[in-house]
Design a protein that fits this description.
Distance between the termini of chain B: 25 Å
Structural class of chain B: mainly alpha
Oligomer: heterodimer
Number of helices of chain A: 17
Helix content of chain B: over 70%
Helix content of chain A: 25-40%
Structural class of chain A: mainly alpha
Strand content of chain B: under 5%
Radius of gyration of chain B: 21 Å
Radius of gyration of chain A: 22 Å
Order of helices and strands of chain B: HHHHHHHHHHHHHHH
Strand order of the largest sheet of chain A: 1-2
Strand content of chain A: under 5%
Largest sheet of chain B: none
Largest sheet of chain A: 2 strands, antiparallel
Order of helices and strands of chain A: HHHHHHHHHHHHHHHEEHH
Chain lengths: 359, 456
Amino acid sequence: MKGLAPLFLGIFGTFAFSWVGLTVIPNLQIGHLNPQMEEDGSDVYPQPQSGMVTRGARVYAANGCIYCHSQQVRADYAADDIERKWGDRRSAPRDYIFERPVFLGKMRMGQDIANIGARAPAEQENAPPGGAASPAASPTPQGGAPSPSVAPSGVTPSPSPAKAASPAPAAPPSGATASPSPAGSPATSLSPAGSPPAAAGSPAASPGSPAPKAPATPSPKAPPASPSPAAAANASPAAGAPWPVQTSGELPMYSAAWHHVHLFSPRSINVDSDMPSYRFLYQMRRISDAPSADALQLTGSDAPPEGWEVVPTFDAKCLVAYLMSLNQSHPLKEVRSAGPAAAPAQSSAAPSTSPAPAK
Amino acid sequence: MFYTSAMAWLILGTLLAGFVSFKLHAPDMFSDISFLTWGRVRPAHMNVMVYGWASMAGMGTAIWLMARLCRTVLRYPLLLVAGAGFWNLGVLLGVGGILLGDSTGYQWLEFPGYAAIVLFVAYTLIVSWAVLMFRFRRGEQIYITQWYLLGAFLWFPWLYAAGQLMLFVVPVQGVLQSAVGWWYANNLLFLWFGAIGLGTAYYMIPKVIGRPVYSYHLAAIGFWSYALFSSWTGMQRLVDGPFPAWMITASIAATILTIIPVATVGLNHHMTMQGYFPLMRYSPTLRFTVFGAMSYTVFSLLGVLISLRSVARYVNFTQASIAYSHLGLYAFFTMVIFGSMYYIVPRLIGREWRYASLIKLHFWASAYGIGLMTLMLLAGGFLQGADMENPSLAFSETTETVLPYLRGRSLAGILLTVSHFIFAYHFGLMLLGLGRQSTVPTFLNPVEAEGSEAHV
């Protein structure tokens, strides 16, 4: 080959072609998505992340969670992700518009956690048998009722006002984000209720628009096969847990308290787990006067010696807040949900049937 | 300079790799120490290997070849020295950053911003040197190797800049970050490492056996189709992810089309080697390079295989993709670079490798190591994927399926570690001037006559 010009041009040309084709054009196509909402501006999804969640995402990045956990649910025709109950619909670009970095992930040495927040115990919804009736209508009273559900929320960073004050940058609502729906708003309480502009939208949305929302929320989380055990006062969360794998001890699976114990000592929850423990995110300290509200409920060999307790650091709390915020259960107009869950926007009876195909 | 740094990084990277590998089946090891947690050591290992070892050694080879092929003496060495210094600093900063928890969370681009800037400065120095050299070249003909090298030198900064800008400076929205990330990663693999590796092979094979490349036309077809198709890959790693389907399909198609350059390059090398395969018994350079060139074919075909939707469904989230990366970066690229180092270092230092036995040992440990590792990861990955697509199995059963294979991988890792230490030791001897003073290069099975051909 002679002459430099054609070589140079060719080298630049081929690469420019690929660069434009795979990054610039897609950016025009899906690079500027907006959250979806109802015509009246309610029911906004997704919502911007709160301060704690954002920080939690950084902890997630720093410790390389992405190397074992993916966050993407493939469509039902493409894989068995939905059958594994990692979600009830495939992930779509719109699900990720507020995330940076996006942790799609490429490896599943651990489970897919795109919906780990949605899998958190939703005591309130399990309570009404059949779940169909009106989850949105009656969340609050039940919120406090089942005792196991109280325990976790007591441990989460959220409830104590003192905590909410400490993270200065984090908007107060972020506290609420972290907890597994203490107030009991159906699902959205898990999703980032964070930043002020949107905050108006979301809390309002849950009570405000029960009809369209109600069907959506229970479907992912409500254990399809187990309205009854759940209704049975949540006594044995393990039995009620719809998700396979682990045999949890006391804590409801995927509650914030469960996450803390799991991060601290994965094998105390599932002996077969190959997840490293993240003890450096926790602090062992002497109990000063009363045990802290957020001390980990550890048992067996993990339990701290008498008079000591293990408490999460702020990073750990943020990480769990982040995990609890992972929830793609809200239906998207452009994505067909699995089974009837797509149709249901109207009928509130849908949720009870929607998970049916899963079993 | 480049080589020495690269060696140091290679050893560090290997140790980190051993760590990572063991930790996967012994997850409690060192779990109390934050900067040794698996999720930090793994990216540290990968980045040390990619930017510390492979890039450094690749640039070393590329620079030497460039000077050779431009038929000039090396001008402006200061530029290079400064470049190497900055590059080392960048990698050091980056790895430190990752271990301290500053990782950015984008795979293949974990280096925090401050390290990326230093790397970029270093790279600018090096590439400006390359362009300068090119201006001073003598002779009209531009050899195939130079196409590839020039391509690599020009593609990399664009690629790196595009990756950095679109992810960190003016970040794109949502899933596009992943798209950019994987586009970057695959192009880095193909257009940077792949181009240097192929360019080197195009130089070493004909050079060592002393006969021209079989066909220039084939080479041209190979080069341009390579540039065109391989640059479009990347999205096939995200089959059925949350993207417009056309992006993924385009990448799958591009991956399949890379069969064309693979076939032409493979054919070209094979025809060049035709009748000279026995030389592999004597020349260490040839042995490593040919192994690498063959691995390139395997690597690409495997890439095609695992990008097909029906296969990706199973292997997408498994160890198989790790096998793919290792095949590309190690079996292909690193082996070619080893070969080139066996060729170049004696010519730089003026001494020959001291022990043929060590070279042999190095080769076999590397070859068996990487072979075993690839097989283990592939087999493990396919089984893992099959289990994962079987919802009646609990998830933890899928990971348990892989464990024995991961142990096998650790074994392979030990082999590789051994081979690297052997090489580093041998290399150290060379540096200290302890090589053999001889006009005859070191052959693996010294048989008189045959050798003279090899020494061109």
